[in-house]
Specification:
Elements: H1 8-28, H2 30-48, E1 55-59, H3 65-74, E2 79-84, H4 87-99, E3 105-109, E4 122-128, H5 137-147, E5 148-159, H6 166-179, H7 200-208, E6 210-219, E7 222-224, H8 227-237, H9 239-245, H10 250-264, E8 268-269, E9 272-275, E10 278-286
Parallel strand pairs: 1-2, 1-4, 2-3, 4-5
Antiparallel strand pairs: 5-10, 6-10, 7-9, 8-9
Helix pairs in contact: 1-4, 1-8, 1-9, 2-3, 5-7, 6-10, 8-10
Bound molecules: S-adenosylmethionine.
């Protein structure tokens, strides 16, 4: 097995467990995630061609923040199907959209690589910060292609290169060091930065059959009052980092978080903590 092939069943089981455990934390940080991703999310909706009345597929929807944006854009005559591998996080998406009175939203547990939706049944599809976690992103894109009507649009959002996302690299490297694990190839399949190499997502889109494929890199700095706010977000919401540290006893885990805080403090400024971050938005159209 090399870095491009992994045990899919084990990966999905671990991924589901990670996100079930991180679901409450991710949901509790919706306000800061929304502020961080507002501009990229609006761009993603535009690039996918989401319009009033559209039927939209939202893959790896998490606690449903972008689902709410999609529902507002399609309006009461449209429909949004939000799907996620984690039952715990999609239950939160269901509760959030119901509370917001967005009756045009349906939430469902589904693996992105086998959505179980009828062929050619959606006008647009999005996947915000999900594609890089999938063991076989090409299969997920083929599944999206199958679900879309001819000429319908799709847009995915992933993290770009490690050097453009130093906070992710710092957090990952520190967690691995403290857990006594070897450094990982940042482009390892299923990892946070696995699709960050320029052109990688475009190649996958083309292989899945999409046309008019184009990627836009967007600067999306994470602005928070202090480094402690970012650390609190990572501690409660970052499934992959929590997973690396889960085997450590309490004092060794605290040492890891404290080391991470010191290293991330380099991004503290007079105007608060500003973590550099770059996203890749890739759009395409079904043939
Ligand atoms: C970083 S969160 C993003 C959630 C949401 N899209 C957002 O931006 O707030 C990643 C999500 O991907 C989901 N996920 C991971 N692997 C998946 C798969 N194979 N199929 C569907 N969802 C998956 C996780 O359960 C988690 O909810």
């Amino acid at each position: 097995m090399d870095s491009t092939t992994i045990d899919t069943t084990a990966h999905q089981t671990a991924m589901r467990a990670q996100w079930d455990a991180a679901a409450t934390g991710w949901n509790a940080h919706t306000a800061i995630i929304r502020a961080w991703l507002r501009t990229p999310t609006d761009a993603m909706c535009r690039m996918a061609g989401v319009r009033p009345g559209s039927r939209v597929l939202d893959v790896a929807a998490g606690a449903g923040d972008q689902t709410e944006t999609l529902a507002e854009r399609v309006g009461p005559s449209g429909h949004v199907l939000a799907t996620d591998l984690s039952p715990a996080i999609i239950a939160l998406a269901r509760a959030n959209t119901l509370r917001a009175g967005l009756t045009q939203v349906e939430c469902r547990v589904a693996d992105a690589e086998a959505l179980g939706v009828p062929e050619a049944s959606f006008d647009a599809a999005v996947c915000r910060l999900g594609l890089m976690f999938f063991p076989d992103p090409l299969q997920a894109l083929r599944e999206l292609h199958r679900a879309l009507r001819p000429s319908a649009g799709v847009c995915t959002m992933v993290f770009s290169r490690p050097e453009r996302n130093p906070c992710i690299s710092i957090v990952m490297a520190t967690a691995l060091e403290h857990a006594g694990l070897p450094a990982r190839d940042p482009f390892e399949t299923g990892g946070l930065l696995s699709l960050g190499l320029p052109g990688r997502v475009d190649t996958l889109f083309a292989a899945a059959g999409f046309r008019d494929v184009a990627t836009t890199a967007l600067d999306a700095p994470f602005r928070l009052p202090s480094v402690d706010d970012y650390l609190a977000f990572v501690r409660s919401s970052a499934g992959p980092i929590r997973k690396i540290l889960e085997g450590l006893d309490a004092s060794r885990a605290e040492a890891a978080w404290s080391d991470m805080r010191d290293r991330l403090n380099v991004f503290s400024t007079q105007d608060g903590w500003i973590g550099p971050n770059e996203l890749l938005l890739t759009a395409g159209r079904r043939t």
